[in-house]
Amino acid sequence: MAVLADLDYIPYLNAAGQMTDQFNGKVGVYAIFDSEKILQFIGYSRDVSLSLKQHLVRQPQRCYWVKVQTIDRPSRTVLEETRDAWMTENGSIPVGNAAEEAAWNQPIDAKIKMTAAEQATYEASDDLGRVKTLKKVARRVEEEVLAALEERGITMPIRFDPKLKEKGLLNL
Question: Which fold has domain 4-105?
Answer without folding.
Answer: GIY-YIG endonuclease (3.40.1440)
